Amino acid sequence: MNKTLAEARAYAQGLLAAVSGHGLDGVQPFVIPPASAIAAVAEILGRDGRVLVGAQNAHWEDAGAWTGEVSVPQVADAGARIIEIGHSERREHFGETDDTVRRKVAAVLHHGLIPLLCIGEPASVKNAGGSAAFILNQARRALDGLDDDQLARVLIAYEPIWAIGVNGRPATAGELQEPFAALWGRYGGRVSALLYGGSVSVDNAAQLLEIEHVGGLFVGRTAWQLEGYLSLLGIAAERGTYRGTPA
Q1: Residues catalogued as catalytic
Q2: Nearest to 195 by CA among 147, 232, 148
Q3: Is 74 within 8 Å of 97 (Cβ atoms)?
Q4: What is the pTM of this model?
Q5: In which order are the strands placed within the sheet that holds 216-217?
Q6: What domains can be seen in the chain, in order of their start residue?
Q7: DSSP one-letter code for 59
Q8: What are the 10-residue block averages of pLDDT along the chain, 247 residues in total?
Protein backbone atom coordinates (compact mmCIF):
# COMPACT_ATOMS: atom_id res chain seq x y z
CA MET A 1 0.00 0.00 0.00
CA ASN A 2 2.54 2.49 -1.26
CA LYS A 3 2.74 5.28 -3.83
CA THR A 4 0.25 7.76 -5.23
CA LEU A 5 -0.41 7.87 -8.96
CA ALA A 6 2.17 10.61 -9.41
CA GLU A 7 4.77 8.65 -7.44
CA ALA A 8 4.03 5.45 -9.34
CA ARG A 9 4.31 7.21 -12.71
CA ALA A 10 7.63 8.78 -11.74
CA TYR A 11 8.96 5.37 -10.65
CA ALA A 12 7.81 3.72 -13.88
CA GLN A 13 9.29 6.47 -16.04
CA GLY A 14 12.63 6.20 -14.27
CA LEU A 15 12.60 2.42 -14.59
CA LEU A 16 11.79 2.57 -18.30
CA ALA A 17 14.59 5.04 -18.92
CA ALA A 18 17.05 2.84 -17.04
CA VAL A 19 16.23 -0.43 -18.81
CA SER A 20 15.73 0.93 -22.33
CA GLY A 21 18.72 0.09 -24.48
CA HIS A 22 20.51 -1.73 -21.67
CA GLY A 23 21.13 -5.44 -21.61
CA LEU A 24 19.52 -7.41 -18.81
CA ASP A 25 20.44 -10.80 -20.17
CA GLY A 26 18.95 -13.57 -18.09
CA VAL A 27 16.81 -11.20 -15.99
CA GLN A 28 13.06 -10.56 -16.22
CA PRO A 29 12.16 -7.45 -14.19
CA PHE A 30 8.64 -7.05 -12.82
CA VAL A 31 6.84 -4.53 -10.63
CA ILE A 32 3.60 -5.00 -8.71
CA PRO A 33 2.02 -1.61 -7.92
CA PRO A 34 -1.17 -1.01 -5.94
CA ALA A 35 -4.40 -1.60 -7.87
CA SER A 36 -4.95 2.13 -8.25
CA ALA A 37 -1.72 2.47 -10.24
CA ILE A 38 -1.65 -0.67 -12.40
CA ALA A 39 -3.04 1.00 -15.54
CA ALA A 40 -0.81 4.07 -15.23
CA VAL A 41 2.34 2.00 -14.70
CA ALA A 42 1.45 -0.42 -17.51
CA GLU A 43 0.84 2.46 -19.89
CA ILE A 44 4.35 3.77 -19.27
CA LEU A 45 6.18 0.45 -19.23
CA GLY A 46 4.24 -0.99 -22.13
CA ARG A 47 3.19 -4.58 -22.64
CA ASP A 48 6.17 -5.90 -24.58
CA GLY A 49 7.49 -7.93 -21.65
CA ARG A 50 10.65 -5.91 -21.02
CA VAL A 51 9.26 -5.10 -17.57
CA LEU A 52 6.20 -7.08 -16.52
CA VAL A 53 3.50 -5.35 -14.48
CA GLY A 54 1.55 -7.23 -11.85
CA ALA A 55 -1.33 -6.96 -9.39
CA GLN A 56 -1.06 -7.65 -5.67
CA ASN A 57 -4.34 -9.55 -5.53
CA ALA A 58 -7.38 -10.55 -7.56
CA HIS A 59 -10.60 -12.42 -6.85
CA TRP A 60 -11.26 -15.89 -8.24
CA GLU A 61 -14.64 -14.88 -9.72
CA ASP A 62 -14.77 -12.91 -12.97
CA ALA A 63 -17.56 -10.60 -11.77
CA GLY A 64 -20.32 -10.37 -9.19
CA ALA A 65 -21.34 -9.07 -5.78
CA TRP A 66 -17.85 -8.86 -4.27
CA THR A 67 -17.71 -5.27 -3.07
CA GLY A 68 -14.20 -3.88 -2.85
CA GLU A 69 -12.58 -6.69 -4.83
CA VAL A 70 -11.07 -6.68 -8.31
CA SER A 71 -11.20 -9.61 -10.72
CA VAL A 72 -8.50 -11.20 -12.82
CA PRO A 73 -10.08 -9.85 -16.05
CA GLN A 74 -10.15 -6.35 -14.53
CA VAL A 75 -6.49 -6.28 -13.56
CA ALA A 76 -5.56 -7.88 -16.88
CA ASP A 77 -7.50 -5.13 -18.64
CA ALA A 78 -5.48 -2.60 -16.64
CA GLY A 79 -2.25 -4.15 -17.90
CA ALA A 80 -1.27 -6.75 -15.28
CA ARG A 81 0.51 -9.86 -16.48
CA ILE A 82 1.44 -11.31 -13.06
CA ILE A 83 -0.94 -11.80 -10.13
CA GLU A 84 0.52 -12.12 -6.64
CA ILE A 85 -1.41 -14.73 -4.67
CA GLY A 86 -1.33 -15.83 -1.05
CA HIS A 87 1.06 -13.29 0.47
CA SER A 88 1.33 -13.87 4.22
CA GLU A 89 -0.24 -10.47 4.93
CA ARG A 90 -3.28 -11.49 2.87
CA ARG A 91 -3.48 -14.76 4.75
CA GLU A 92 -3.07 -13.15 8.18
CA HIS A 93 -5.15 -9.99 7.85
CA PHE A 94 -7.71 -10.79 5.17
CA GLY A 95 -8.59 -14.41 5.81
CA GLU A 96 -6.95 -15.97 2.76
CA THR A 97 -6.92 -19.75 3.04
CA ASP A 98 -5.31 -22.54 1.07
CA ASP A 99 -8.67 -23.00 -0.66
CA THR A 100 -9.01 -19.36 -1.77
CA VAL A 101 -5.38 -19.38 -2.89
CA ARG A 102 -6.06 -22.48 -5.00
CA ARG A 103 -9.11 -20.83 -6.58
CA LYS A 104 -7.12 -17.71 -7.41
CA VAL A 105 -4.29 -19.68 -8.99
CA ALA A 106 -6.82 -21.48 -11.19
CA ALA A 107 -8.52 -18.21 -12.18
CA VAL A 108 -5.22 -16.55 -13.10
CA LEU A 109 -4.19 -19.50 -15.26
CA HIS A 110 -7.62 -19.64 -16.88
CA HIS A 111 -7.17 -16.08 -18.11
CA GLY A 112 -3.64 -16.65 -19.38
CA LEU A 113 -1.80 -14.66 -16.74
CA ILE A 114 1.12 -15.66 -14.50
CA PRO A 115 0.34 -16.73 -10.91
CA LEU A 116 3.00 -15.66 -8.40
CA LEU A 117 2.29 -18.03 -5.52
CA CYS A 118 3.64 -16.86 -2.16
CA ILE A 119 4.42 -19.47 0.48
CA GLY A 120 6.25 -19.26 3.79
CA GLU A 121 6.29 -20.50 7.34
CA PRO A 122 6.12 -18.64 10.69
CA ALA A 123 9.02 -18.63 13.13
CA SER A 124 7.35 -21.24 15.34
CA VAL A 125 7.34 -23.77 12.50
CA LYS A 126 10.93 -22.97 11.55
CA ASN A 127 12.10 -23.37 15.14
CA ALA A 128 10.41 -26.77 15.31
CA GLY A 129 12.21 -27.92 12.19
CA GLY A 130 9.12 -28.09 10.02
CA SER A 131 9.83 -25.48 7.35
CA ALA A 132 10.12 -27.79 4.36
CA ALA A 133 7.01 -29.81 5.16
CA PHE A 134 4.99 -26.65 5.82
CA ILE A 135 5.80 -24.90 2.55
CA LEU A 136 5.47 -28.05 0.47
CA ASN A 137 2.00 -28.50 1.94
CA GLN A 138 1.09 -24.90 1.09
CA ALA A 139 2.30 -25.35 -2.47
CA ARG A 140 0.57 -28.69 -2.88
CA ARG A 141 -2.78 -27.33 -1.78
CA ALA A 142 -2.48 -24.44 -4.23
CA LEU A 143 -1.15 -26.37 -7.23
CA ASP A 144 -2.41 -29.96 -7.09
CA GLY A 145 -4.55 -30.81 -10.07
CA LEU A 146 -2.72 -28.54 -12.50
CA ASP A 147 -1.33 -30.15 -15.63
CA ASP A 148 2.27 -29.75 -16.77
CA ASP A 149 1.51 -26.84 -19.10
CA GLN A 150 -0.26 -24.95 -16.31
CA LEU A 151 2.50 -25.61 -13.78
CA ALA A 152 5.08 -24.34 -16.25
CA ARG A 153 3.48 -20.87 -16.06
CA VAL A 154 3.59 -20.64 -12.24
CA LEU A 155 6.14 -18.68 -10.24
CA ILE A 156 6.67 -19.76 -6.62
CA ALA A 157 8.02 -17.18 -4.18
CA TYR A 158 9.30 -18.56 -0.89
CA GLU A 159 8.92 -15.81 1.70
CA PRO A 160 9.47 -17.07 5.25
CA ILE A 161 7.24 -14.98 7.49
CA TRP A 162 10.04 -14.49 10.02
CA ALA A 163 12.18 -12.85 7.34
CA ILE A 164 9.73 -10.31 5.88
CA GLY A 165 8.38 -6.96 6.96
CA VAL A 166 9.80 -4.24 9.16
CA ASN A 167 10.53 -6.73 11.96
CA GLY A 168 11.90 -9.46 9.74
CA ARG A 169 15.51 -10.57 9.86
CA PRO A 170 17.57 -11.61 6.83
CA ALA A 171 17.79 -15.34 6.30
CA THR A 172 21.21 -16.94 6.06
CA ALA A 173 22.21 -19.07 3.11
CA GLY A 174 22.22 -22.09 5.36
CA GLU A 175 18.63 -21.50 6.44
CA LEU A 176 17.44 -21.39 2.84
CA GLN A 177 19.18 -24.46 1.48
CA GLU A 178 16.75 -27.03 2.88
CA PRO A 179 13.52 -25.22 1.87
CA PHE A 180 14.76 -24.64 -1.67
CA ALA A 181 16.03 -28.18 -1.99
CA ALA A 182 12.59 -29.42 -0.94
CA LEU A 183 10.80 -27.12 -3.38
CA TRP A 184 13.17 -28.12 -6.19
CA GLY A 185 12.63 -31.78 -5.41
CA ARG A 186 8.91 -31.44 -6.06
CA TYR A 187 8.67 -28.55 -8.53
CA GLY A 188 12.13 -28.10 -10.05
CA GLY A 189 11.88 -27.94 -13.83
CA ARG A 190 8.09 -28.02 -13.57
CA VAL A 191 7.31 -24.41 -12.56
CA SER A 192 8.62 -21.30 -14.26
CA ALA A 193 10.98 -20.41 -11.41
CA LEU A 194 11.53 -20.51 -7.66
CA LEU A 195 12.03 -17.03 -6.22
CA TYR A 196 13.18 -15.89 -2.79
CA GLY A 197 11.77 -12.95 -0.87
CA GLY A 198 12.44 -11.74 2.67
CA SER A 199 14.67 -8.86 3.78
CA VAL A 200 16.38 -8.80 0.40
CA SER A 201 18.85 -5.92 0.18
CA VAL A 202 21.66 -4.66 -1.99
CA ASP A 203 24.04 -6.13 0.58
CA ASN A 204 22.74 -9.72 0.46
CA ALA A 205 21.21 -10.05 -3.03
CA ALA A 206 24.33 -11.50 -4.64
CA GLN A 207 24.68 -14.15 -1.93
CA LEU A 208 20.99 -15.06 -2.19
CA LEU A 209 21.24 -15.49 -5.94
CA GLU A 210 24.11 -17.92 -5.48
CA ILE A 211 22.00 -20.32 -3.38
CA GLU A 212 21.26 -23.48 -5.31
CA HIS A 213 17.78 -23.53 -6.89
CA VAL A 214 17.09 -19.81 -6.26
CA GLY A 215 16.01 -18.56 -9.68
CA GLY A 216 15.29 -14.94 -8.81
CA LEU A 217 14.28 -12.47 -6.12
CA PHE A 218 10.91 -11.12 -5.00
CA VAL A 219 11.78 -7.83 -3.32
CA GLY A 220 9.83 -5.53 -1.04
CA ARG A 221 11.25 -2.57 0.84
CA THR A 222 14.59 -2.29 -0.93
CA ALA A 223 12.75 -1.88 -4.24
CA TRP A 224 10.27 0.74 -3.00
CA GLN A 225 12.80 3.35 -4.10
CA LEU A 226 13.89 3.21 -7.73
CA GLU A 227 17.58 3.45 -6.88
CA GLY A 228 17.36 0.32 -4.78
CA TYR A 229 15.54 -1.64 -7.46
CA LEU A 230 17.99 -0.61 -10.17
CA SER A 231 20.89 -1.68 -7.97
CA LEU A 232 19.30 -5.10 -7.51
CA LEU A 233 18.70 -5.44 -11.25
CA GLY A 234 22.36 -4.71 -11.83
CA ILE A 235 23.40 -7.37 -9.35
CA ALA A 236 21.10 -9.93 -10.98
CA ALA A 237 22.26 -9.03 -14.48
CA GLU A 238 25.89 -9.54 -13.49
CA ARG A 239 25.08 -13.12 -12.51
CA GLY A 240 22.42 -13.93 -15.10
CA THR A 241 20.87 -16.25 -12.56
CA TYR A 242 17.25 -15.94 -13.61
CA ARG A 243 16.33 -19.33 -15.05
CA GLY A 244 12.57 -18.99 -15.51
CA THR A 245 10.50 -17.86 -18.47
CA PRO A 246 7.48 -15.99 -17.06
CA ALA A 247 7.06 -13.92 -20.22
Answers
A1: 87, 159
A2: 232
A3: no
A4: 0.95
A5: 30-31, 52-55, 82-85, 114-119, 155-158, 193-196, 216-217
A6: 5-239 (3.20.20.70)
A7: B
A8: 98 94 84 98 91 98 98 98 97 97 98 98 97 98 97 98 93 97 98 97 97 97 96 90 39
